[in-house]
Amino acid sequence: MARSLDDLPLRAALVDIAREFHARGWMAGTAGNLSAREDDHHFWITASAKPKGRLEETDFILVRVNDGEVVERVRPDNKPSAETSIHRVLYALFPEARACLHGHIVEAVVAADRAKQGAKGLRLPAIEMIKGFDIWQQNPKIDLPLFGNHLDVARIAGDIEKRFRKTPPAVTALMVRDHGPTVWGAGLQEACNRFETLEYLLRYQARAR
Amino acid sequence: MARSLDDLPLRAALVDIAREFHARGWMAGTAGNLSAREDDHHFWITASAKPKGRLEETDFILVRVNDGEVVERVRPDNKPSAETSIHRVLYALFPEARACLHGHIVEAVVAADRAKQGAKGLRLPAIEMIKGFDIWQQNPKIDLPLFGNHLDVARIAGDIEKRFRKTPPAVTALMVRDHGPTVWGAGLQEACNRFETLEYLLRYQARAR
Amino acid sequence: MARSLDDLPLRAALVDIAREFHARGWMAGTAGNLSAREDDHHFWITASAKPKGRLEETDFILVRVNDGEVVERVRPDNKPSAETSIHRVLYALFPEARACLHGHIVEAVVAADRAKQGAKGLRLPAIEMIKGFDIWQQNPKIDLPLFGNHLDVARIAGDIEKRFRKTPPAVTALMVRDHGPTVWGAGLQEACNRFETLEYLLRYQARAR
Amino acid sequence: MARSLDDLPLRAALVDIAREFHARGWMAGTAGNLSAREDDHHFWITASAKPKGRLEETDFILVRVNDGEVVERVRPDNKPSAETSIHRVLYALFPEARACLHGHIVEAVVAADRAKQGAKGLRLPAIEMIKGFDIWQQNPKIDLPLFGNHLDVARIAGDIEKRFRKTPPAVTALMVRDHGPTVWGAGLQEACNRFETLEYLLRYQARAR
Fold first, then answer.
1. Collapsing DSSP states into helix, strand and coil, what is residue A37?
2. What is the 3 state secondary structure string of chain D?
């Protein structure tokens, strides 16, 4: 096992994460998508409809940040997922983001159901685990940005871009209601640690009375 | 690990699924049964009373779709399970079905308990994960077909046949109350992905308020 | 992997079960004990205070059924657990029992909490999974025998013996309140399958509304 | 696999525990820290910010009990975690403690939420599993020491020291609210067994009605 996910080749690290997240129930069937920045202008992302428990290093496409063009397909039949647009927006907005992980988590959806219809944020619980997002406050009042789900994923991506351009998020994460969280980080290991941190926070929230 | 379950020999793939589902608690003890179509007229199915966490490629029988005749037993003492009749009905009704997976899931039973006595369907939650069944609608109103459980399994199979002949299901899945889901697909990987998808949807439903 | 637990040497099979049950959270720390009949008059049982996630074939003692005498210790410092007396009673009462498994399961304790104080049985849910106990009825009304927990384990063993001598149990299992289930079977695989079956039934009961 | 965690080199044992606890969701991301006493005056403890699912034997520092001085860093960039102060207090107070394990457990936080604001203890459930703390009473009334969480970890350590100097705890464990449990033992295996025991007790408490 590599010391850190950042010591692995990008796609090998993403395969590791996919198999682990699938085993934990966070990427059921083909759900979710994972990406990592290859260079300032491109990122590798899982191709559409790949079973996440059996992901391989060939199941990726290389996408250009500025226009979403697919510049490489490891296998010729790899297709981009609609959700690629969300990853693209995040890489464009946050140059420091090197990896971006999106899964589907039952308890995250349950926790988000507690927020009012149309709410722009979900107040995260002020428990110790929030330090996983580098928040060092005694009684942190931190909101996880919440977005509505739309069949047209480009609309979600647009909402994210518009809101974050105006109001940068307090955490490197967002939640799409009825759907799931997306977490990014300055490296693969940081993104993965924070994904686990957010899952813990939302699992607590879903169970707390 | 094979790229896809469809790259494995049929029974090897079913063994993989059985051990995975057992580990997840979806095939406790000997519960559930898994099948895959060998050709248009026959399917392999797990023999009765095999512990699913220790399934082997010898634990199968080959059954004829049109009359349920056992045409091959990998081991001479392999016996057909009563639930073979449900698989047979599904292969007969849906020529495109190549694999059929039936497990017992606590949270699926809990979710189905919320439907009224005698209800013919359980409205699935309109969350993102429903796309795993190739449903692309903004606010999908999709019912999972619900059937009553009977000691006489042939009666369940008959109910399924009668209902589906008249009203094809909106998803390639059904739920027998107090019992568990059955999911089929155009291949082993698709059936497995959709089984995981349904488990997620029903787990959400069991936990949502 | 062996085809069936019954194809393994007795203690190797018990070690397999212990590691699996520990991983599932049913034998936290050193909790629980597992036994298998060596012959009509003796059974192997886990020695006291062994961590179940690291059990080995040397962590057993051989006990005589009729008087509880320890006739062999694989390691000289292996000590009998107080709960050996419960296993002894069950082997004495049921000559067909070849294996006996006792774990501690949070959801079993939660389910049993629903029974009235002093109740002698917990009505098992009439769901399909009950067939794992070879109960083939349309609406089974089966009670899992319930016993009160006592610091003095010999008293629990005595209660079991007295009650079962008069009223044999409807299932090859019992539950000690605030403690956990004990399940036996005509072989190691059957005992293990039924333990998983009971866990499923009680997990359902703990979650059902 | 070693017979007991105490048969392994100290740091190898801690690595084993970290990977296991991470897999169980008790050390999400980099959360928690684990230590073992090297000799009467020093203990090895996980360095700050290491992902616990990928911990290695180089991810440790050696700390002096009496003043908290870091006397060895396996890697030069290993930094002490703020929570080292809590481990230090426990080793200073309890010379028999050889290992000390701290994790973050959703259900422990949920269980502690049931205690009144400012409560100094959480009454543990009087169920069989409490024997894992060597408590042999028919109706034990045992309180798990509860402490408030503070951004300034030294303050938590100070509270623990002050309270325990006056009132030694009834169990070798404590809980910091909104945070997680810390468990110690006379050896690595005992500490690990008791951590699992406490997790079970608090999971029960979080689910019981």
1. strand
2. CCCCHHHCCHHHHHHHHHHHHHHCCCCCCCCCEEEEEEECCEEEEECCCCCHHHCCCCCEEEEECCCCCEEEECCCCCCCCCCHHHHHHHHHHCCCCCEEEECCCHHHHHHHCCCCCCCCEEECCCCHHHHHHCCCCCCCCCEEEEECCCCCHHHHHHHHHHHHHHCCCCCCEEEECCCEEEEEECCHHHHHHHHHHHHHHHHHHHHCC
What pLDDT, on the 0 to 100 scale, is given for residue C3? 83
Tell whether B135 is within 8 A of chain A (Cβ): no
| Residue D55 · residue D30 · CB < 8 Å | no
The pTM assigned to this predicted structure is 0.98
What are residue C62's DSSP bridge partners? C44, C72
A48 lies within 8 A of chain B by CB:
no
CA D141, CA D143: separation in Å to the nearest integer? 7
Given an 8 Å threshold on Cβ–Cβ distance, is A132 in contact with D176?
no
Strand, coil or helix: what is B37? strand
DSSP output for C92-151? HH-TT--EEEE---HHHHHHHTTSPTT-SEEEPP-SGGGGGGT---SS---EEEEE---S
- pLDDT tens for D107-118 read 999 999 999 999
- C15-69 pLDDT, tens digit per residue, is 999 999 999 999 999 999 999 999 999 999 999 999 999 999 999 999 999 999 9
Q: How far is A47 from chain B (nearest CA, A)?
A: 14
Instruction: Kindly compute the dihedral angle of the four CA atoms of residues D66, D68, D74, D76, in this order, to the nearest 10 degrees.
Output: -140
Please give the ipTM for the structure prediction: 0.97
What letter would DSSP give residue A171? S
Are D134 and D186 contacting, i.e. CB atoms less than 8 angstroms apart? no
Say if D179 is an interface residue toward chain A (CB within 8 Å): yes
Tokens of C164: 């079962």
Position B1 confidence tier, pLDDT thresholds 50, 70, 90: low
Token pair recorded at residue D119: 């409560």
Structural tokens at position C58:
């040397």
Q: How far is CA C158 from CA A22, C86, C143, C152, C164, in A?
A: 48, 8, 20, 10, 10
Helix axes D188-207, D10-23, angle to 10 degrees: 20
Euclidean distance between CA atoms B18 and A7, whole angstroms:
34
Could you give the C-alpha distances from C16 to C2, C37, C45, C189, in angstroms and in order?
A: 10, 16, 14, 11
Looking at residue B122, what DSSP letter applies? E
* Contact check, Cβ <8 Å, B127/A109: yes
Identity of the amino acid at B191: A
* Cα–Cα dist B21/B51, whole Å: 12
Query: What gap in Å lies between CA B8 and CA B2, rounded to an integer?
Result: 7
C-alpha C202/C-alpha D131 separation (Å) is 23
DSSP D209: -
For residues D43 and D184, give the distance between their C-alpha atoms in angstroms, rounded to a whole number.
Answer: 13
Size of interface A-D (CB pairs under 8 A): 67
The encoded tokens of residue D167 equal: 């009132």
Angle, nearest 10°, between helix axes B10-23 and B188-207? 20
Overall residue count recorded for chain C in this entry: 209
* Alpha helices (runs of H) in D143-187, residue ranges in sequence order: 153-166
Tell me how far apart the alpha carbons of residues C95 and A44 are, in angstroms, rounded to a whole number: 63
Nearest Cβ partner of A1 from D25, D54, D206? D54
Residue D28, judged by CB atoms within 10 A of its CB (0-12, 13-18, 19+), counts as buried
The C-alpha atoms of residue B160 and residue B100 are separated, in whole angstroms, by 14
The encoded tokens of residue A9 equal 């080749």
CA atoms in the 13 A half-sphere facing the CB of C186:
4
Q: How far apart are CA B140 and CA B124, in angstroms?
A: 9
Chain D contact for C115 (CB, 8 A cutoff): no
> Distance between CA atoms of B7 and D27, rounded to whole angstroms?
36
Selection from B47, B54, B169, B33 nearest residue B101 by Cα: B33
